[in-house]
Amino acid sequence: MKKFICTRATDLQSFTDETYPQGSFAFAALLRAKDIRVNGVRTGKNVPLCDGDEVVYYTTPTQEAKPSHAVVYEDENIIVCDKFSGVSAEGLLSELCALGSAFAVHRLDRNTEGLIVYAKNERAAAELVRAFKERRVKKVYLALCRNNFTKKQACLTAYLKKDAKKASVTVSDTPRKGFVKIVTEYRVVKEEGDAALAEITLHTGKTHQIRAHMAHIGCPIVGDEKYGDNALNKKYGARRQRLVAKQLSFELSGELSYLSSKTFTSSFTPQ
Predict the structure, then answer these.
(1) What is the C-alpha to C-alpha distance for residues 228 and 222, in angstroms, rounded to an integer?
(2) Which of 1, 16, 111, 194 is most solvent-facing, going by the fewest CB within 10 Å?
(3) Higher pLDDT, 99 or 160
(4) Domain at 140-244: CATH architecture
(5) Distance of CA 140 to the CA centre of its chain
(6) Domain boundaries, the chain
(7) Do 210 and 202 form a contact (C-beta atoms < 8 A)?
(8) What per-residue confidence (pLDDT) applies to 226?
(9) CATH, domain 67-134, list 1.20.144, 2.60.40, 3.30.70, 3.40.50
(10) How far is Cα 137 from Cα 2, in angstroms, rounded to an integer?
(11) How far apart are the first and last CA of the chain?
(12) Are the C-beta atoms of 119 and 128 separated by less than 8 Å?
């Protein structure tokens, strides 16, 4: 049992991500079992919190001991982690900050596993944030998708609009008001019946871009409960999207130029 007091208005998931890493990693399971109490009341929902609210987590020893990541690379400027599915980027940041200085420079969805990088000092953070913004970081993903690809390889352009209230996005083939341009490149690397493993490279980096774009072309990612196909998810017994941030490489200058010669690879593969 772990007990915390909220000190500002927020929601339960955000509070958990920021305050209690092990609770963050097991958040979905804790909600399903109603193993979180807010002011003494068990909850199965992401409820709003106020200053002074008491939050108690009834995590099991297994949940407490579950690893959040493996370290792929670390030096005095950065740490590259192989993040497990179900672990939020905020929760992992909280865990790393407890061990030393760490700064977020990009994001990775909670249910996407694979590579995520954090800076270990402010100078490195500033340079990496610029690099991501200027598209000087190459990110390659692997996704298990419905095998409905009309071509084995393509570079697709579409337009995306984010709905913050619904925490989802919409994709259009043509420009529309409020939509931004996205470019997604894919290559089918393996086919197995009604599923295909695709290598995906982002040329733009928007919220849920891969998941929504693949679903838009009729090739949803297996296990994606938001944009995917329920029948396909059930067939594969998939409760989380089969999507991995597989490879990461940089084009950097100055103090971090030495990283430009390195390519980092995740140990995970979607199955």
Answers:
(1) 7
(2) 1
(3) 160
(4) 2-Layer Sandwich (3.30)
(5) 14
(6) 2-64, 67-134, 140-244
(7) yes
(8) 93
(9) 3.30.70
(10) 39
(11) 34
(12) yes
CB atoms within 10 A of CB 258: 11
Which of 49-58, 65-74, 152-161 is least confident?
65-74
Residue at token pair 């929760």: 91
Identify the active-site residue in 35, 109, 224, 229: 109
CA separation, residue 200 to residues 24, 101, 184 (Å): 28, 32, 7
Distance (Å, whole) CA 92 – CA 21: 7
CATH class of 2-64: alpha beta
Contact in structure between 95 and 21 (CB atoms under 8 Å): yes
In the prediction, which pLDDT does 223 show?
94
Q: Clarify whether 163 is annotated catalytic.
A: no
Phi, psi of 53 (to 5 degrees): -65, 140
Classify residue 129 by burial, with Cβ atoms within 10 Å: 0-12, 13-18, 19+.
Answer: middle
With b for 16 or more beta-carbon neighbours within 10 A and e for fewer, the 61-74 pattern comes to: eebeeeebbeebee
Each residue's pLDDT tens digit, 200-248: 999 998 999 999 999 999 999 999 999 999 999 999 888 889 999 999 9
Instruction: Give the pLDDT confidence score for residue 80 in this predicted structure.
Output: 97
**139: which 2 tokens?**
């990110």
